[in-house]
Amino acid sequence: MKVTDLTIDELKKFIREAVDEKFKEILFDPDNGLELRDEVEQRLKVSLASKERISLEEVKEREIGGQA
User: Fold this and answer.
1) Could you tell me which of 67, 42, 63, 66 has the C-alpha nearest to residue 54?
2) Alpha-carbon distance 5 to 12, whole Å?
3) Where residue 66 falls among pLDDT bands split at 50, 70, 90?
4) For residues 11 and 3, is the Cβ–Cβ distance under 8 A?
5) For the chain, which terminal residue's Cβ has fewer other Cβ atoms within 10 angstroms, N or C?
6) What angle do CA 7, 11, 17 make, to 5 degrees?
7) Which of 15, 55, 43 has its CA nearest to residue 63?
8) Is 55 exposed, middle or buried (0-12, 13-18, 19+ CB in 10 A)?
9) Confidence of residue 25 (pLDDT cuts 50, 70, 90)
10) Alpha helices of the chain — where are they, by DSSP H?
11) Are 14 and 6 spatial neighbours (Cβ–Cβ below 8 Å)?
């Protein structure tokens, strides 16, 4: 079937489905439904409870320093 054979409504439906599919690809979370290991969950809880924060610049410096 060619696009020229489609009605306006069929073409709109085709485009809508293609866009929906693309959004699902882009927004898909590969970790969805997975469970955190207990030790990872504990580390996250400790981190979130901590008042210590570092700036983005410090993160960048640490990353660059770790690669050298």
Assistant:
1) 63
2) 13
3) low
4) yes
5) C
6) 145
7) 55
8) exposed
9) confident
10) 8-27, 38-49, 56-67
11) yes
